[in-house]
Structures are given as C-alpha cells and as structure tokens.
Amino acid sequence: MASKPETRAHVLIIGAGPVGMMCASKLSHAGIKTTVVESDKFIPPIPKALTYTAPVLADLKKLGVLEEVQKISFADEHAIWQWRTLGGELLADMHWSLLEDHADPRLVKPYTLQCGQHLLAEVLTEYCGRFPSTEVLFDHALVGLTQDASQVTAQVSRSGGEPFEIKADWVIGADGGKSATRKFIDQSLEGFTWNESFVAMNVHFPFPKYGWGAANFLIGGKEWAVAGRSGPLTDPWRVAFGVEVGLTDEQVMKDIAPDRLKRILPGPDPYEIVQCSQYRVHQRQVQQYKVGRVVLAGDAAHLNNPIGGFGLTTGMTDAGCISDALILVIRGEAPEEFLQKACDVRREIFATVSNPGSQKFKAMVQQDPDNICAEDREFFEKLKNDAEFHRSALTGVMRLYTPVEDLMGK
Ligand SMILES: Cc1cc2nc3c(=O)[nH]c(=O)nc-3n(C[C@H](O)[C@H](O)[C@H](O)COP(=O)(O)OP(=O)(O)OC[C@H]3O[C@@H](n4cnc5c(N)ncnc54)[C@H](O)[C@@H]3O)c2cc1C
C-alpha cells in the first residue's frame, strides 16, 4: 500500500517501458516523489521481449506484484527449455523444476515468466497508480536536459508542443535504445551492430502437440530460429529468425515468412501470424551509466542481441539495483559514491555476462546443425547426464542479479 514520502527529493524517470516502470515502482514503494515522462500516448503492444528469469522475479516479489504478473504470463515452475536442430531433432532439455530443492532463497518460483513486455510495464504502471506522490505522464517527451551540482532541469514537451521545465533531484534515463537522456549527458553506445535484421512474430500454431517446451532454440545456420510461449496457454507463440537488412515488413510477411515458417514449424497444421516486426541488433554499451545526477538503465545504457533473453533481464536487474542504491542515497543512508558503485557493477555485469552470453547463444543457434561444435555437443551431453551441471546452467542466470545488499561493505 501507498506509504508516505519520507523525503522531499523528486526523481524524474524518462521512459515508461518495463525498466522505467520498475524504477518508478521501487521509488514509489520507498515513498519517494516520482514523475515518469513517456513520449508515446501508451505502451504499444508490439512483439518485443517476453522472457523474465529468476532475478527479475525476485524484485517483482519484493514489490508484491509477482502474482499479478503471473496471471498474465505463462508461468510454470516445471517449464522446459529445449535445444533442437531446425529439422526438429531434440538435442537437450533444460528443466527449471530441477531448482526445486536449491538452497538459494533468491530463486523465486516459478523461476521464469513469459509475457509481452508491454503487459509487464502495464502492471507496474497500475502499481504506481496506488501512490499519490507518483505521476506517469504519457505523451510527454524529454527534449532537453541540463544539470548543476544540486539539481537537474528537464525540458519536456507534450504532443510536440512548447517545452516546459521539470526540476528534479535525480533523473533516471530509461528511454530505450534511442535514448535522448543518453545524448544529453554526452554518452554514446560503443560496440558494433550485426549485419542482419531480426524478425519477431506472434504466431498461433499448436506447438505443444509436437512436444515443444516453453522456449526452443533451433540450431540452423542462417536459418536459425527461436520459438517460445508469449503468455498464457491460449496466447500466440513468439517465433524469431534472421533476415537480410533492408527488407520491408511487407516483404518479410509475403516473400520470406511462409517459406521460413514451413521449415521452422514442426507439423503441417495451419498457422496464423498475428503480429510481425523487424529490428536491428547490436552489442553496445556506454562508458558511464552515471553522469552527475543523471543515471542510465536498460536499453538506454546497453544493447545486445535478444537470443537467450539477456536484454530485458539485464535491464530489469539494472532497474532493481540502481533504484535501490538511489533510495539509500536519497535517504542519506549511503553516500553518492554508492550509486556510482551500483552503476559500475551493472556496467561490468553487462560487459562480462550479458554481452558475451548473448553472443554465445547467437553463435550456438547460427552454427551448422550437421556440424555442431565440440563445446556445444559437450554442453548438451552434460545437460542430459550431469544433474549438478544442469542445475548450475540454470542458476547461471543469477549472475545478472545485483541485490543492493550485496554491494554494501564492498
Ligand atoms: C522488435 C523488438 C523485439 C525484441 N525482442 C526481444 C526479445 O525477444 N528478447 C529480449 O531480451 N529483448 C528483445 N528486444 C529488446 C527488448 O525489447 C529491450 O531490451 C527492452 O525493451 C528494454 O526495455 P527498456 O525499458 O530499457 O526500453 P524500452 O522498452 O525501449 O522503453 C523505453 C521507453 O522510453 C520511451 N521514450 C523514448 N524516448 C523518449 C523521450 N525522449 N521522452 C520520453 N520517453 C521516451 C519510449 O517510448 C519507450 O516507451 C526486442 C526489441 C525490439 C525493438
């Protein structure tokens, strides 16, 4: 329930995507006056990220919204992720239920959730609505930003109209890959862009009839694909694959998708595509997450290819850690350097876990299915035959999690 603001501090969050709304939820829950500005009139339901692993669940549980998110998700503690060849041969399974007797109390059931990220952002926006000191302003874009040692002044424009000022003690830029906040603090995303486009489509097709798990990684060279549930049982599935750069969505739908789906789908049943979008993929990160009183989180700070589900899980765990650190600084329980430390640790996690991990997943699915490399063959064999290895492969996702308590005393 809403708690009284304990400080006069005001935090402005740019962007009402899932990362911005997770930050807003944490700050609101801590009783801190929070304003979110979002340039869109609403969060559009386009097919973007949909898988959230254990580290995200831990923060949703702390906020008390885990059950609500479960209701709109595919949520099954016995969920199975599978590795297959494009032809459908099952190479290995990952069983989340193996974590049942795991000692780490931060491993929250059902361990993974699958739902469209716009729905997650909506649940968090509704949650913020319970707090009178929190305001979410849709159709308001950040168009300018300056700061001095004691405050930040943001220029915000409604529906492209005359800008007006919002003053805040701190700003969190969670405004995605094309972040304006990032530009105003002179940071750029360093790294590279892959020379291919990814297609994400929502498709109705009876995958479970063919024994497919909640998430499926299909090894197929240039014809790789990923398919997984996008929500509760009746929802369409998400199918993603790569195409050359420069095609229109119409070309993808008409000239590419029918042939590709024929090879990806495991049977002759009819299918229906309900949504389709294309996007470029990158491996990039800024040098500094914190510049003065402005911090970046999520796609505003880093981008990676989505295979393996590192993108949004990293963004959501940034949001948890950075907001919790900011709350301690605002309450005077930690010095400003503590926020810097949280930002530096999150930057290091992207550099050492999410960035290489997502590239490893991409290389795995993009290899020749008839000539799978020795390292990956060994990985599949160990998943099948070594329960301890299997468990450690599952708990590996916790490397993305930085509970703020872990930073204290470091
Ligand atoms: C088509 C597509 C498919 C994807 N699929 C996957 C996937 O399957 N798995 C995966 O892990 N990742 C995927 N990603 C990446 C994933 O969606 C991102 O990691 C995730 O969206 C990051 O969340 P965020 O809140 O940081 O940014 P966003 O979700 O981009 O939210 C940023 C918000 O800021 C708002 N905004 C932008 N500029 C301003 C401004 N100047 N003022 C105010 N508001 C502003 C935007 O309107 C937006 O609502 C996909 C991305 C795309 C584009």
From TrEMBL:
One GO MF term attached to the UniProt entry: FAD binding
Q: Name one GO biological process term.
A: 3-(3-hydroxy)phenylpropionate catabolic process
Which part of the chain is the FAD-binding domain? Answer: 9-350
Source species, domain of life: Eukaryota
**Record's keyword terms, sorted:** FAD, Flavoprotein, Oxidoreductase
Q: What Pfam families does the record tag this protein with?
A: FAD_binding_3 (PF01494)
* Presence of keyword 4Fe-4S: no
InterPro entries named among the record's database cross-references: FAD-bd, FAD/NAD-bd_sf, PheA/TfdB_FAD_monoxygenase
Q: Per the database entry, which stretches of residues form a coiled coil?
A: none
Name the chain's protein. Answer: FAD/NAD(P)-binding domain-containing protein
